[in-house]
Amino acid sequence: MTTERPASPGPRPAGPGGPRPAAGGGRPPLPRFYARRKICTFCVDKVKHIDYKDVGRLRRFISDRSKMEARRKTGVCSKHQRALSRAIKRARILALIPFSPDHRMPGGGYAA
Question: Structural domains in the chain?
Answer without folding.
Answer: 41-93 (4.10.640.10)
